[in-house]
């Protein structure tokens, strides 16, 4: 059953956070007790409610926060429990266009791009901001260009992997030590493939090595050959580099889930297929969509990696949801609205594995219209 909500426009926020690696004077505001926060971590989330009236201002985006929770970005940043239908904590919104969340043992690490480039914000479980890191200032002579996937965190929240234009880096948050694992200028290569650029990174399931994607070239160079898409892995000490060439598949981005990494294609070369990689084994597979053009208007993976949604935009939005393991089409939903502005940009779709529920956000990045939120079960 689809439920549709409209959310009123809010004033733009202009929060400026403190400089790199300084403890900010901004704290979260839990609006439930500490015991409720602990219960949220332990309970079995078998139900789902998304009550948008609990968020003030224009809802812009969400991210899965573990244990049936969502981090919701509106006028502020909210930690929302989808089972209890309650806001657990709220804090000032980080100045980022979009963000990814890595739930850790002690809280959350938010990463993404803002006005100052790639950023990482470290929160405890009640959304008290403990630290912010301007990633590009760490690199000095390199920078992160990817909107998503450029910065990843380990599940214990102690290390960051950084995929930048010129290399791959490991940053220890405790020692504040930055290690270069791959340096493009130093001919990072193996098995006849050289790395020419890095676009995204993620830690493998055991946190013992890093998975990444980018572009590469043949070593030695082949006359007339353009660079090609690659993915690979490397140990935390910089050893055991492995690279795989993709000659007929061009990766647009890397989406991280608990069990899988997904590599949606560049929309101009989309052929209705989605490459994914098992984070534990490193084995790749392909999911085929119902239509050869499907995936051009957005591909969205679930928090655990069991499901994938696609968006097809015309005068409306068609959402299709697939089971990754079997390839089965589980649900198709058409969302319509009299205002065509909602379908000018691709939506944001968030899939929760436990409740098999999708949250579809339209207009979150368009200031002229209210945000339209739909939920559907599959």
Structure description:
The protein has helices at residues 34-42, 135-139; strands spanning 3-7, 29-30, 61-66, 69-73, 77-81, 86-91, 100-103, 107-114, 117-124, 129-134, 151-153, 159-164, 167-172, 177-183, 189-190, 193-203, 209-218, 228-235, 242-246, 255-256, 260-263, 273-278, 284-288, 299-301, 307-313, 317-323, 329-335, 348-352, 357-362, 371-377. It has 378 residues and is mainly β. It is 4% helix and 46% strand. Strand 29 and strand 30 form a beta hairpin. It contains 2 helices and 30 strands.
Give the proportion of residues in helices: under 10%
Number of strands: 30
Question: Total helix count?
Answer: 2
| Low-confidence region ranges | 1-26
Strand order of the largest sheet: 2-6-5-4-3
Average of the residue pLDDT scores: 88
Distance between the termini: 9 Å
Fraction of residues in β-strands = over 45%
Which class best fits the helix and strand makeup? mainly beta
Largest sheet: 5 strands, antiparallel
Shape descriptor: globular
Indicate the radius of gyration in whole angstroms: 20 Å
